[in-house]
Amino acid sequence: MDMEIEPMEIIDCKVEVDGIEIELNCEQEQVLDCTMEKVKYMENNSFFLLIGGAAGTGKSLLLKILRDQICQLHGENSCLVTAPTAASAEKLNARTIDSTFLFMNYDPFEPLPKEQKKALHSIWKKCKVLMIDDINYVNSTVFARIDHRSQDVLNTKQPFGGLSVIVFGDLLQLGPEERAPVIYRDIERCYREPRDLTTPDSPKILWSLFELFELQDNMRMRFNPEEAQILEKIRSSDNVAYVQKKLLEVCKLGEDSEIGIGDVMKELKTLREAHPQKKFVILVPDEHMVEQVNQVLTQVGPVGDFSPQEVTVKQTNTVLVDGAEEEDDLKVTKGSQVVLTCNIEEYNVHAGTLGTVMDFEKDTITVEFPCGTVDLERVSLDRSNWKQFPIRLAEVLTIRESQGMEFDGVIIVAKESWFTCDMTMLEPGHMYTALSRAKSLELCRITPLDCFGWKTSKSALTEWERLQNREEMDSNNEMNIVQTYLSEKVDREY
């Protein structure tokens, strides 16, 4: 069943996520119920599911709910959650794909040494479901390596080691790093022979196993349908002239030729002064641009420079340590915006939460979060020989690392460097990913603003339509069940 649900705004279900009661809309509840039905009957019947949709539809929220419910049903270690980037893993209190599958120190499709394999097997032996967030960032070679590692560790030739797999994401947002094969294509040619030898029973294109459960309601912008419509047009490259006109009315930042770091920082200050309770961030295409802004920020006041501290790893855990590379130094000033990188249960503050540095001492950084002020100390980093403060600077981020995060407004710099007025050739999905981080387009600024230079991947559009329109013999019966289910929800609501 490739499930496409009619958008509905009915709020019908309450669940608890990270200690907070959340209301689900009807389509979110339906996807949750249908997925859990698969989970209940998955013994010897693995399933492969994409929960997809535009930004703001609740994909990451459903991931957290499903993770909790699967663990309640099958036990604490029955669900393995991972994500391609540190930023996306942090907000789920999970590990990256490289860390989860120990990819860093081994060649693709190379079996693990006996000790590492035994250690991973002891962790995974009770696992029944693998969840991967931001699947659009995962290239097909990495996906095949996940399949291979799962089979190797769990001692089976079944795809993904016999695990059911649920992936979350939006193919129309940013894809894998440049030149990497997208997830719905075959892997790099140089790896096909070892892939075929090590995972002979898996399909060459693993993506062909997956069916789509689509979310359509943009809950982030549910009170502003016009802005939601503009974002959807950007997502699908529809009616570019209309989008250009609308964004010029609210989002243009000065004259493009005059915009530099100072101008952007001034606009950021203006937005924060006008909206002191709201959170803003600068988004740029390139990491070097991030570093240049951070250098400027460290010149505005006393700087706290915090080096990581090496710790002794217990001998029993060394086989799962990713490597001994030292963590980066952390530099902050009073007033720096930062993002938390792990959960702090004592204060009920969770990874991905934005805060402001209020003060710092030798071994303490005081950060004000929405829940209150917290004195942070260094913590041990998972599978690492180092301890460091669990925060990262978040005044400016690359567009790629911002996926999955949410702000009240963003300032987008669509240039190849701070020292040119020429618009960089953004990757497909770049601008949609950036703008969709914001709750309101009125609180966004863009420079240069040229919608005609923004791109959407044609192959991603084609693949998304294929997933939506994929026909199966029982598809009509399935959709009748869906419509009946929704009708019953409406009847119960009234």
Textual characterization of the structure:
The chain is of the alpha/beta class and 494 residues long. It has two domains: 3-219 and 460-493, P-loop containing nucleotide triphosphate hydrolases (Rossmann fold); 222-453, no CATH class. The chain has helices spanning 26-40, 59-74, 86-90, 97-100, 114-124, 140-154, 192-198, 225-236, 240-250, 261-274, 287-297, 399-402, 430-435, 458-469, 475-493, and strands spanning 3-4, 11-17, 20-25, 48-53, 79-83, 95-96, 129-132, 164-169, 211-215, 280-284, 303-306, 309-310, 330-333, 337-340, 354-360, 365-369, 372-376, 379-380, 386-388, 391-393, 396-398, 409-413, 445-447. The strands form six sheets. A seven-stranded parallel β-sheet has the order 1-9-4-8-7-5-6. Strands 17-16-15-14-20 form a five-stranded antiparallel β-sheet, with no helix packed on it. A hairpin with a 2-residue loop joins strand 2 and strand 3. Helix 1 runs parallel beside helix 2 (59-74). The radius of gyration is 23 Å and the shape is globular. It catalyses: ATP + H2O = ADP + phosphate + H(+). One of its GO terms (molecular function) is 5'-3' DNA helicase activity. Keywords: ATP-binding, DNA damage, DNA recombination, DNA repair, Helicase, Hydrolase, Nucleotide-binding.
Query: Which CATH architecture of the largest domain would you pick?
Result: 3-Layer(aba) Sandwich
Mean pLDDT: 85
Strand order of the largest sheet: 1-9-4-8-7-5-6
* Strands, count: 23
Strand content: 15-25%
Shape: globular
Query: Number of helix segments?
Result: 15
Structural class: alpha/beta
Termini, distance in Å? 29 Å
Helical residue percent band? 25-40%
The CATH topology of the largest domain corresponds to: Rossmann fold
Biggest beta sheet summary: 7 strands, parallel
Can you identify the CATH superfamily of the largest domain?
Answer: P-loop containing nucleotide triphosphate hydrolases
Rg, please?
Answer: 23 Å
How many domains comprise the coordinates? 2
What is the CATH class of the largest domain? Alpha Beta
